[in-house]
Design goal:
The chain contains three helices and no strands. By secondary structure, the chain is mainly alpha-helical.
Amino acid sequence: MNKTINVEVTPKKNEPFERMLKRFIKKIKKERIIEELRERKYYEKPSEIRRKLAKRKKATLDKLKHKEETN
C-alpha cells in the first residue's frame, strides 16, 4: 500500500515565492497527503473507517441535494 507521491511545483516567470508556496499547498491538499498522514498516525478499526466513509458520503450527497434545491 506504500505508494510514492511526488508533488512538484516549478516556479513560473517572475512568480513570487508566496504564490508558488500557495500552489504547492493546494496540490498537497488535492492529493490528500496530510490527511492520509493523520489517518495513519493511529490504528483505526475497519468498522470505524467504514462508518467514517459512510458519514462523509452522506454529507457530500446532502450538500449536493441542498445545492440542487436552491437552484
